[in-house]
Every structure is written in C-alpha cells, then in structure tokens.
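Format notes (please read before filing issues)

Several people have asked whether sequences and structure tokens are stored in separate files. They are not. Every record keeps both together, in the order shown below: the sequence lines, then the token lines. Line labels are part of the format and must not be stripped during preprocessing.
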Amino acid sequence: MRARSPSAPIRLMHFVYSFHMGGLENVVIQLINRLPAGQYQHCLVSLTDMGDFVDRIQTPGVERVSLHKPPGHAIPLYPALYRLFRRYRPDVLHTCNLAALEVVPLAWLARVPVRIHAEHGWDANDPKGQNVKFQRLRKLYRPFVSHYVSVSQDLDQYLDQRIGVPSERRTLIANGVDTAQFSLPPDVKVRPEGCPFEPGRHWLIGTVGRLQTVKNQPLLARAFVRFLELYPAAREQARLVIVGEGPLRTEVERILSEAGVSHLAWLPGARADVATLLQSLDCFVLPSETEGTSCTLQEAMSCGLPSVATAVGGTPDLLTEGLTGRLVPSGDAEAMAQALMHYMLNPPLARKHGLAARAQAQRDFGMDAMVGHYDRLFQSS
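Then the structure lines:
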C-alpha cells in the first residue's frame, strides 16, 4: 500500500458495472455506510450508470462516478479509467463480479497497491459458471488480483477448482442482513402502500428481485397457477406479490393473464420499502436459476418468513430443508406448487419454520459480522 500517515483514512474505491437495486449493490451500500467512520474515504464508480438506489448512501463526502460505457468492451474508456485511478489514488480497489474485473489490470498499471475482487453470483449469461470463455478471462486477470472474496461456498469452490485461486488468496464472506430493520412483523401486519390485498386476511406469497433470467420469476408465476389448480379453495385467500422490475415482467404478466389469475397478483415494480413488503407476506419464494448468497432470502428469513426456494448455488447453505423452509429443484413448478400448498395448509408449521429462520438470521447473518470481515480484509491488505 502507498505510504500514508497512520491516521489517514484508507482510500477505498468500489467498482461495479452498474448500480441499481440489487443484492450486490446493497452490500456496497452497507460497506460505505457502516465501515468505521473516519477510517475510510469512499469512491463509488460504475462503468455504466447509477439509479436512485445510490441515494441510500448516508456517509458524507462519497464521490460517485458514472462512466456511461456503451455496449461492448471498455477499451475506449481505458485512458479515462487510468486518469481516474491516478487522480483518486485509491489504497484499495474493490471490484465486484466479472463485468468489473477487466479494470483490475489497468489499476495495477496505475499502481493501485491492493486490488480486491468479490464474486457475488453467477453472470446472467453463465448461470452455472460453466462458460469456458469466462473461465479463461478470470484466469487471465488472476495475476492482477491481490485477493478474492466469494459470498457462498459454491463460488469459493469455483475460484479454487476452476480458476485456480489458492486458499491464501481468497476469503468467503457471506452477505449480511440488518436484523433490526428486517424483523418480525407487528401483531397486526401493515399493508404496504398501494397493495390491493389485506395482510392477515389474504395469504400472501411473494418474492423480491430484479425481473431477469437468473431470478426466474416466471417459474413462480407458473407455480402459483399450478397451486391454484391443485387447491382451488386457495383462490379465496392466496395472493401473489412479485416486487421488482426488469425484462421478465411481460412474461410473468402473460402467464398470469392466460391462466385468468391476474387479479390475484400484484406487481408493484421496484420498491424502497422492502422490509415492510416482506413483513406483510406469509411465505417467501426464491425461484432463481442460480444464486450466490441471496440478500433477499436472508432478509425474508430475518422477518420470520418460511421460504420456498430452488436448491441452487448458495441457497442450500442458507435454507435448511424441513427446518427453515422448503428446497425444490430448479425449474420445477409442480414441486414449488406442492411446497406452497404444504405451508398454506399447515399454519403452525409455517410459523415454526419462520421463527427458526429468524433465529438463524440473528445467529448467522448479522450485518456487523459481514462488515467486520471486510474491514479486517481492507485493513490488512
């Protein structure tokens, strides 16, 4: 690390491809807001753009840079990137996921002393990490990365077995959750603003996430339709809530419309009141094709919800089958529908699993623990 006064803050540059609502972005926000005040000076850089989610930064003096990269390789931006590194002179560069990894050699060339790269989940075009081209790219960039962070066991194993990163150069740091904000709901649940359904009277099934391929919300829509076919009486109470925005919205709406159940579903788009939305639910669903460590699943568990999730990526490390939720095969709408029916017909079991999930979140998913791990890594690098 460059010579600096022991009392000077660490200049920490967070580098992402884009910055909109999502689990990765939430981790970056929490690091900026929660790392010890006065010990860090933050800069947030996006290769493309930033959305309103960036306004959740509470730490004063955080420089924000959007580079507005057009489609294609970032080579035309290299001169500007090099000047940015030389101007800001970060002590630590913190890049996230493959799309930001290509700037690491440039940071090395600009003499950024420490370059930490975090893998938060699989790329949308490589949901199982099997793309040979992406493996080769990661191996190509490997010598320029000082240390790696993965958020789940399967990602850590991928870095070990596929990319060849030795154990001393990688650390597993699971995502954290604010267990005070994401807490058990009040005795009388609050109806989220704009919600057409009544928590407590209706049995609300829900998910939160960007409507994109890897999150696979159409699977949940199909499972909801099948659930109503298996248990027609559920039409009186069961309601579906899908929070988020993205390219899959049209497909989700088509599935519900063709089944004639659009009136039983609410798609409010992206929302900032995620805690209130989760607390209004009776069952959380994570239908993803792949996951690292799902922040939203952790938040749902912290809210005391039983969950139905596809057994992919790091999800089985979070959710214990038959104890805190139900795991179903990826893409299996029938199994998901059966699991939903299982919980609706067994309220005491649903509550038991939800309380067990809350206890696990308090024990294992604390935000302070996650921030502490990053703090020690940034300080020791």
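For reference, the curators noted about this record: The first helix runs from residue 23 to 34. The chain has 14 helices and 13 strands.
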